[in-house]
Amino acid sequence: MKNETSTSPLPTTKKEEITEVSHLDFPAAMKEIIDGKKITKLEWDNTNTYCVLHEGILKLYKENKFYQWIINDGDLIGKDWVVILNKNNG
User: Fold this and answer.
1) Are 21 and 56 in contact (CB under 8 A)?
2) Structural domain tally of the chain?
């Protein structure tokens, strides 16, 4: 069986900003978004870039702006999604 452990680097942000539940796959990450949470990938190494439901649409928040999130293959197969804590909904 293929090893499904993420090889992404650990984020350089404060630990309390990332939940203990890490390394979610894409469907689990989408469930967290539906529950009103913000998610990011460890690969991005930045909790100021995250995905969220904004005005009923999946959006990517980056550089103080919301962008329509165009999901790619890397997003779908990634297993390094994490929930962000201590962030207000945008």
Assistant:
1) no
2) 1
* Of the candidates 30, 6, 18, 22, the residue with the CA atom closest to the CA atom of residue 86: 18
**What distance separates the 2 farthest-apart alpha carbons in the chain?**
41
CA dihedral 83, 72, 54, 80 (to 10 degrees): 0
74-84 pLDDT tens trace: 999 999 999 98
Per-residue pLDDT tens digits for 8-40: 444 444 444 665 556 899 999 999 999 999 999
Q: CA 6 from chain center: how many Å? A: 14
Range of the domain at 72: 18-84
